[in-house]
Design brief:
Elements (H helix, E strand, L loop, with lengths): L4 E5 L6 E2 L10 E6 L2 E6 L6 E3 L2 E3 L1 E4 L4 E4 L2 E4 L16 E2 L2 E2 L3 H14 L5 E4 L6 H10 L8 E5 L5 H9 E2 L11 E2 L1 H4 L4 E5 L9 H10 L1 E2 L8 E2 L3 E6 L3 H7 L4 H7 L2 E4 L10 H8 L10 H9 L5 H15 L1 H7 L4 H6 L4 H23 L4 H8 L3 H10 L4
Parallel strand pairs: 1-2, 12-19, 12-20, 13-16, 16-19
Antiparallel strand pairs: 1-3, 3-4, 4-7, 5-6, 5-8, 8-9, 10-11, 14-15, 17-18
Helix pairs in contact: 1-2, 5-7, 8-10, 10-11, 13-14, 14-15
Length: 393
């Protein structure tokens, strides 16, 4: 989200510039999370160290020594981060959510939509990145224009080039007539470049030119034409690591990521599951969403995120809830045939432990959450977050 992260590197113009040849151009990223400030290495050549230990990601405490390449940085946390405003409603366009992370995202989307700058939407597979892009378009001054989707990961290089920029007759075998490309077709509106990390390196300079000059040249043509579009891109990959690896152009990355946004995974917004399920259900079917069903849904790991939840709801409509659980990945029915993968088994065990531990501790404290937090050795806000996640209290 805006203002919740900053890039450290040797490239001029990054948020924290370090003029050291041992520091990669995009070396690491500082991220403000609910539990504090984190540093995440971005596939740097010489690594990131926290208090002398090499890390891929770590929380930074006050007075921590952070080392990027050969440069040491002493971290001083003098002021708590200013929280992002929360969106006042539980929806933004077709997006729904009541969790803090969802409403923070909605507030950010509202601000971003009013600009005309390029947006990079990052997040795991199935989190709803295209829906976020559509919400930005619908809330923008370009809402009356086209919204054109281009999937960069499904076409060959030649076909993708023709899809993006168009072609003239005879440009290649089979090009029997002129064809307008998708970017030109979006004139006055928004181009959504899905899976931008799959864009072939050879096509990246051509896309960069469009971003820099608002002109494009169809395949086989001799003249450029003006276009008026806004770019929103999405990826589940880490483009900063790809930049350091030389598989994604650095200048294109910074053109596409004027506003970088992160869509949180479903496991970080479990309290949104009832709203999402209600959205997926036919009108009049919401009564089937019992508290016990909500609890069961909240305990699932949802590795496929919102997409997996939607599939579950569709399966439940066709087969019934019990059969849908039985057929779901990681279900008890599946467990009879083969063991769960370690990450999913761990997530399931942790969810059950959290729910039982917190319920027992709050009961032992007579329902006093502040006292229960003291008994558990955590802050009341953290305990409330776990309680909301598991629909307790």
């Amino acid at each position: 989200m805006i203002h919740d992260r900053a890039v450290i590197g040797s490239r001029p113009g990054v948020d924290v510039h370090v003029g050291d040849p041992t520091v990669s151009r995009i070396h690491a990223e500082l991220q403000i999370r609910e539990n504090g400030l984190w540093v995440v290495d971005q596939g740097s050549t010489n690594g990131t160290n926290v208090s002398g230990v090499r890390v891929t990601g770590a929380r930074l405490l006050d007075n921590t020594m952070l080392q990027v390449g050969g440069t040491e940085i002493r971290v001083h946390l003098s002021t708590p981060p200013v929280p992002v405003d929360l969106w006042p409603n539980e929806s933004f366009g077709r997006l729904v959510g009541r969790s803090t992370v969802a409403r923070e995202l909605f507030a950010t989307l509202d601000r971003v939509a009013k600009t005309d700058q390029a947006v990079l939407v990052e997040g795991e597979t199935g989190t709803g990145k295209e829906e976020v892009a559509r919400a930005i378009h619908a809330a923008s001054p370009r809402a009356g224009g086209p919204f054109v989707v281009i999937d960069c990961g499904v076409l060959t290089e030649t076909l993708l080039e023709a899809e993006l920029f168009g072609h003239v007759r005879g440009a290649f075998t089979g090009a029997e007539q002129d064809r307008e490309g998708s970017i030109a077709a979006a004139d006055g509106g928004t181009v959504f470049l899905d899976e931008i990390g799959e864009l072939p390196l050879e096509l990246q300079p051509k896309l960069l030119r469009v971003l820099e000059t608002s002109t494009l040249r169809p395949l086989g043509a001799t003249e450029y034409r003006k276009v008026n579009v806004r770019f929103v891109s999405a990826t589940h990959q880490n483009l900063r690591e790809m930049v350091n690896a030389g598989t994604f152009r650095e200048d294109l990355y910074f053109r596409l990521a004027v506003f970088p946004l992160t869509v949180p995974p479903l496991r970080e917004r479990r309290e949104d599951i009832p709203l999402l399920v209600a959205q997926f259900l036919p009108e009049g079917s919401v009564g089937a969403l019992t508290p016990e069903l909500v609890r069961m849904l909240a305990e699932r790991p949802w590795k496929g995120n919102v997409r997996e939840l939607r599939s579950f709801v569709q399966r439940a409509q066709a087969l019934g809830v019990a059969a849908a659980f039985e057929a779901a990945p990681g279900s008890k029915g599946e467990r009879r045939d083969r063991p769960l993968p370690f990450p999913e088994a761990r997530d399931l065990a942790l969810a059950e432990f959290e729910r039982k531990y917190v319920a027992d501790t709050v009961a032992r404290a007579g329902g006093d959450v502040a006292k229960a937090a003291e008994l558990a050795g955590v802050t009341p806000s953290y305990l409330y977050r776990i309680m909301r996640r598991h629909q307790l209290g």
